[in-house]
Amino acid sequence: MGAILATNLNLIGKLIYNVLFKWVATWASGSELFGTFAVTVIMFTLFLKLATLPLDLWQKMVTRKNSKKMEIMKPELEKVKKQCGDNQQLYAQKQREVYKKYKYSMFGACLPSLVTMAIFFTIFSGFNSAVRYHNSVIYDEMQTVYTTAYTTEINAQVAKYEDGVIPADKRTEAEAAGIKKAEEAVLAAYKPERFLHITNIFMPDSWKQPIPDASTYAGTGMGKLGIPDVDREEYNRVMKPIMEKYNFTEKGKNQWNGYLVLPVLTLLLSLLSSKLLAPAQQPSMPGQTEEQIKQQERTNKMMMLMMPLMMGIFSLFYSAAFTLYMFTNSLFTTAFNVTYNLIAKSIDKKQRDHYLSTTIK
Hints:
- By secondary structure, the chain is mainly α.
- It has a domain at 1-134 and 192-207 and 246-323 and 330-336.
- It has twelve helices and no strands.
């Protein structure tokens, strides 16, 4: 199964799992609280942020440049609007002329959001493929361990008898011994990839159980792994001892994989980062009425909330590994935006002081 899914790993999935994860595993042995894949996610996020730093700077510069142009154009646009009155067609023409005069790009104002959205879905797809592949690899390994231990024990039982045949009245006992040895071997072999409070980083930091059951493993849809061609009875038989250990408390209740810590932090950081990234004022389209402008402002506010809300929803249903990426990315992005805004404000203040000192005597 793992060999089949390996061909379905997309480019980002291969980079995360086949390159970075294997490299990190050579020097970062996973601990009880901080697994190797968690280190991989943080390293991947750091490398990605460094690689896209020029793009981030360009986006901030475009946004800042557009905001300054809008401040300059605003009095002229208001004057044009008064001159045109109710003639929306003439106003749209004059508005376009003002935009052209100051080389204001409507596309440039929207481009940062479009680029951010494209990167988000590309990384999301990569993490999904890596998570599916890892779960298939784990199942393949546990299936091999189970079969080997079971076969070894059955052979040991057979060796007790000279004719190499287990008596009929002993077969049930031998079968039980084989299953017990197989389950013990699976439990000993399985090592969950933890991250702090999260038992299995390849499952959501939520009310989901740490070990996927057959429905989650083979099912399709949001929060499902969608791994094809799985014998569900075989899966439940092999993974049963692991599910019994990690999916249930001592009182038999469902055990949560996490406590929603990362989803909540990711949502809050994403909202903060989105607010810091937003330009001071969004432009109006040529010829818009007052009601249309107000509607655009409401739409802009919804767009600011859309990405953080999307991240919050995804973090509830998809792997904690992807949520950790979103949180780490938002943390770096917020730190970058705060630093950039502080530097930009300092530069603006110096420019204003210089302007005042040279024009007002």
